[in-house]
């Protein structure tokens, strides 16, 4: 399945939030959306997920505009997880993950063997199977995020969109989560993640979209996009690239 | 910020979750028994002494005609008191409690707001105004269905008004919802009061109108049950048909949308359903406060937040709560009665303040 934005723009109350963005998501690749605050990362993910409709251009799933697809059809193709995920209720992990089966279930259709298997496999893959009967309200931040990934996987959608999943995680959990995302991409999922941390993006993303005030400042392979010059320009900071022993590059920032 | 509980507590919470089904079953059994007990007690009290055993026998004979047994030793006058005069009141109480509780559960899920409930956000006041208009205009005298229909219309108009004003981009902040509810209730009550002062010359009409504003179960008959029962059944049925959507809405509107919920359609159906339940309840009993607020919370506390469990649990809790309140209202200063609304407000208002206080401390609820 292929998800693309074609020259998409969005205007809310006369204010231009996003303009002229074209990009493409395909299976096997992890795309990171980066950019300063207010550059349009979350908005772009919402357009990709069909939650909002672009006021110009189009969001297309296998060539079909998301505008005209029924919500359930979109949900079977794209699993979008917002940043703001209220889980204030004593649902068990299994119940939360089973919510991912909603787009596959008719109104009066009970969950079947097929759904239980999909939810079980999703929990196993996201490493939350041992938490299945726990209440989400008593999980740590890292565990919660993995539960949300499991819910995305339970939809069996080939495309997964995550809005700042690492925002409230410590570095160990952030690394685990992104490693999981990359592994899922290797297995054929198309994954797009809005990220704040450029070094994490550099380390895990195959491709990067660098956003600046609602437009695309750079888009391409990670190594090509993440040059100190481009980053420095967009973020308004001085950037140095340093190589560490392992051979990886890290970015250092100065005002 | 360490988050590794000891093995013991982990196992404890895990087993707690696993044992929930047994807990849910025992809740339903206990609540049903309590309901039956309160029905018998509720029918048993009144100006004329009636033995509780007779009450139980007469009720059973009518409810289960084939196994009912012989009633020939009970005077027909006593049978009439039990079945014709007192039983309907008790059944209406249970249905009103259940209906308002289902409406409240739906509103709390829909608005994702722990304080949403028919009376607090002004929906009951809308229904009452509809009833008052039906009475004051004389329509209710000429056409039997005018009152319930106008009551439904009033609830619906009030609910959509609150929703349109208090909701911005799919969010309904607690404070906004309450303020809109307060303003709307005050406005609607003012219009009702105006209509009363206009009809004051016709004393009986004005008194009838006051009944709807204060709420009560006096003189309810089987016709009221016949009107209310199908509405409560439909209301519960529709809400249950949407249990997955209601669960998903608790997880957040964007999450629900992303998982395939047709949000706008779902909201409209659930709003109309909540208005139907509220309107029907108000049409037979006037404005009875706080049931729709308390029952869902108690049920959520005692069972689960899953709507397929919560909705029937809340309905049962609402029925038990209102029966108990009505029972208290009739025995506290025997042989006088206190108004039912005083009892429900006496239990409900402190609970409401408690919820409000907790809301201030934590952003989450439950």
Question: In a few lines, what is going on in this structure?
Answer:
The complex is a heterodimer of chains A (255) and B (366). In chain A, 33% of the residues lie in helices and 29% in strands. Chain A has 255 residues and is of the alpha/beta class.
Kindly report the oligomeric state of this protein: heterodimer
Overall shape of chain A: globular
**Helix coverage percent of chain B:** over 70%
* pLDDT averaged over residues of chain B: 86
Beta strand count of chain B = 0
Features:
heterodimer, A: 255 residues, alpha/beta, Rossmann fold, six-stranded mixed beta sheet, 29% strand, B: 366 residues, mainly alpha, ABC transporter involved in vitamin B12 uptake, BtuC, disordered N terminus
Could you explain the architecture of this structure?
By secondary structure, chain A is an alpha/beta fold. Chain A has one domain (2-254): P-loop containing nucleotide triphosphate hydrolases (Rossmann fold, 3-Layer(aba) Sandwich), CATH 3.40.50. In chain A, helix 4 crosses helix 5 (141-154). The mean pLDDT of chain A is 93. Chain A has helices at residues 41-49, 71-77, 93-98, 113-125, 141-154, 171-186, 198-204, 222-225, 228-235, and strands at 2-12, 15-26, 30-34, 56-61, 64-65, 78-81, 159-163, 190-194, 207-212, 215-221, 238-243, 249-254. Chain A contains 9 helices and 12 strands. In chain A, a hairpin with a 2-residue loop joins strand 4 and strand 5 (64-65). In chain A, the strands form 3 sheets. Chain A has a 6-stranded mixed beta sheet, sandwiched between helices. Chain A has a 4-stranded antiparallel beta sheet with strand order 2-1-4-5, with helices on one face. Chain A has a two-stranded antiparallel ribbon with strand order 11-12. The longest helix of chain A has 16 residues, at 171-186. Chain B is mostly helical. The longest helix of chain B is centred in the first third of the chain and has 36 residues, at 76-111. Chain B is globular. Chain B contains 16 helices and no strands. Chain B has a domain at 114-288: Orthogonal Bundle (ABC transporter involved in vitamin B12 uptake, BtuC). Helices cover 76% and strands 0% of the residues of chain B. The interface between A and B is large, with 42 and 31 residues.
């Amino acid at each position: 399945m292929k998800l693309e934005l074609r020259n998409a723009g969005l205007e809310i109350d006369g204010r231009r939030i996003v303009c002229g963005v074209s990009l493409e998501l395909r299976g096997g690749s992890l795309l990171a959306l980066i950019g300063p605050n207010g550059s349009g990362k979350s908005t772009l993910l919402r357009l990709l997920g069909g939650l909002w409709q672009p006021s110009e251009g189009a969001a297309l799933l296998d060539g079909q505009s998301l505008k005209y697809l029924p919500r359930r059809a979109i949900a079977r193709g794209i699993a979008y997880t917002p940043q703001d995920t209220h889980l204030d209720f004593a649902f068990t992990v299994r119940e939360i993950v089973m919510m991912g089966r909603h787009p596959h279930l008719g109104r009066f259709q009970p969950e079947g063997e097929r759904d239980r298997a999909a939810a079980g496999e999703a929990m196993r893959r996201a490493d939350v199977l041992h938490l299945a009967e726990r209440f989400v309200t008593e999980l740590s931040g890292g565990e919660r995020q993995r539960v949300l990934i499991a819910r995305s996987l339970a939809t069996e959608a080939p495309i997964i969109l995550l809005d700042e999943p690492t925002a409230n995680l410590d570095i160990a959990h952030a690394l685990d989560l992104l490693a999981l995302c990359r592994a899922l991409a290797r297995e054929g999922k198309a994954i797009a993640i809005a990220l704040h941390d450029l070094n994490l993006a550099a380390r895990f993303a195959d491709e990067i979209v660098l956003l600046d005030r609602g437009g695309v400042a750079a888009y391409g392979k990670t190594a090509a996009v993440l040059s100190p010059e481009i980053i420095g320009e967009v973020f308004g900071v001085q950037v140095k690239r340093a190589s560490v022993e392992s051979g990886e590059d890290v970015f250092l920032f100065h005002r | 910020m360490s988050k590794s509980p000891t093995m013991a507590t982990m196992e404890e919470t895990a087993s707690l979750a696993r044992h929930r089904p047994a807990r849910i079953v025992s809740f339903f059994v206990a609540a049903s028994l309590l309901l039956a007990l309160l029905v018998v007690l509720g029918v048993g009290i009144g100006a004329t002494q009636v033995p509780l055993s007779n009450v139980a026998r007469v009720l059973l004979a009518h409810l289960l005609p084939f196994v009912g047994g012989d009633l020939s030793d009970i005077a027909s006058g006593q049978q009439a008191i039990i079945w014709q005069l007192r039983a309907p009141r008790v059944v209406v109480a249970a249905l009103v409690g259940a209906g308002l509780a289902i409406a409240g559960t739906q509103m709390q899920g829909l608005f994702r707001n722990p304080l949403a409930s028919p009376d607090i956000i002004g929906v009951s006041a809308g229904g009452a105004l509809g009833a008052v208009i039906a009475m004051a205009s004389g329509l209710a005298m000429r056409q039997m269905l005018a009152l319930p229909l106008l009551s439904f219309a009033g609830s619906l108009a009030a609910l959509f008004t609150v929703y349109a004003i208090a909701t911005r981009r799919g969010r309904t902040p607690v404070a906004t919802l309450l303020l809109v509810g307060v303003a709307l209730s005050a406005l609607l009550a003012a219009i009702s009061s105006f209509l009363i002062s206009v009809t004051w010359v016709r004393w009986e009409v004005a008194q009838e109108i006051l009944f709807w504003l204060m709420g009560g179960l006096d003189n309810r008959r089987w016709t009221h049950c016949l009107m209310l029962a199908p509405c409560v059944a439909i209301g519960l049925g529709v809400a249950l048909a949407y249990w997955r959507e209601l669960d998903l809405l608790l997880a957040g509107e964007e999450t629900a949308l992303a998982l395939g919920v047709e949000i706008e359609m779902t909201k409209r159906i659930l709003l109309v359903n909540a208005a139907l339940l509220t309107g029907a309840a108000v049409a037979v009993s006037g404005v009875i406060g706080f049931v729709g607020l308390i029952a869902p919370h108690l049920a959520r506390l005692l069972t689960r937040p899953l709507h397929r469990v919560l909705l029937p649990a809340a309905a049962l809790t609402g029925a038990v709560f209102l029966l108990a309140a009505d029972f208290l209202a009739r025995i506290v200063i025997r042989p006088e009665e206190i108004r039912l609304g005083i009892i429900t407000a006496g239990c409900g208002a402190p609970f409401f303040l408690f919820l409000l206080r907790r809301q201030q401390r934590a952003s989450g609820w439950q």
